[in-house]
Amino acid sequence: LSNESDTSSVIEAQNSDKVYPTGTIVSNVISTISGSNQPDTLIVSSSLHQDKRVMGVYFDNMWSGDDEQTERKNYHNIASIGDGVVLVNNQNGNIENGDYITTASGSGGYGCKQNDDLLHNYTVAKSLEDVDWSTEVSSSKLIACTYHCG
Predict the structure, then answer these.
(1) pTM given for the model
(2) Burial per residue of 20-50, b for 16 or more beta-carbon CB atoms within 10 angstroms, e otherwise
């Protein structure tokens, strides 16, 4: 599933700027174990349909800019369980409240309606609202959801 272009958009935070918009779906490129037995994970915005490497949904950079916390400047808030928001597009049609959301192909971090109602290793979230794309001004939007990829 991985390709060499995945590493071109690996998160590298600069100061307190967000790397991705809130709601962007991110996937794991590679993980290594650090000295504290915690994984150090490189992530990219998801671009594969039904990407089983999905880690969660990006919120923001955890670094506040304080000099005391410079070791945290590459730490980011990524939600994998709970509730929040996710960016979706119209790739698989209208979304109903309760539909599962998976990663969309070639999307740069957007989700789309999943083809079935089963929880899979590529399921990202469950929609908490309806989206009728014929009434939307854009082919993508931020929707409320519960996360199911943790």
Answers:
(1) 0.81
(2) bebbbbbbbbeeeeeeeeeeebebbbbbbbb
The residue assigned the tokens 């962007």 is 24
pLDDT digits (tens, 9 = 90+) for 46-94: 999 999 999 999 988 765 556 555 555 567 789 999 999 999 999 999 9
Cα angle 68-72-78, degrees, rounded to a multiple of 5: 145
> How would you class 90 by CB atoms within 10 Å of its CB: exposed for 0-12, middle for 13-18, buried for 19 or more?
buried
Q: Return the HEC string of the chain.
A: CCCHHHHHHCCCCCCCCCCCCCCCEEEEEEEEECCCCCEEEEEEECCCCCCCCEEEEEEEECCCCCHHHHHHCCCEEEECEEEEEEEEECCCCCECCCCEEEECCCCCCCEEECCCCCCCCCEEEEECCCECHHHCCCCEEEEEEEEECC
